Hints:
It contains no helices and 11 strands. It is mainly β and 126 residues long. Strands 2, 4, 5, 6, 9, 10 and 11 form a 7-stranded mixed sheet that branches. A hairpin with a 6-residue loop joins strand 5 (46-51) and strand 6 (58-60). The radius of gyration is 13 Å and the shape is globular. The relative contact order is 0.32.
Amino acid sequence: QLQLVESGGGLVQPGGSLRLSCAASRFTLPYYAIGWFRQAPGKEREGVSCISSVGSSINYADSVKGRFTISRDNAKNTVYLQMNSLKPEDTGVYSCAVRLRPLPNCRLVPDEYNYWGQGTQVTVSA
């Protein structure tokens, strides 16, 4: 079974930075689109960013544009989410997911993704 494992979450002050990692096992990550999603307590899951299989398509939620950067290291079978200028409203459980359907672009639609990691907690607080 495909596995995704997130890491890099933690507690950070407003304005700080974190880099999340999404490591894949039992499949070759570069062949598939990867999305990052987050969920805050009492709120619905929200798409944050995604990157297509060849990296030619990248999307960000409006709330994180200019602050977050998604990238992939195919040699390490890992996708990263660099988060800068963090705000309290960025707090939540961040999960990565893989979309198996081979489409050229990626979208921040949770139902399009097939396997999910367990998530990593990000807390932005003074």
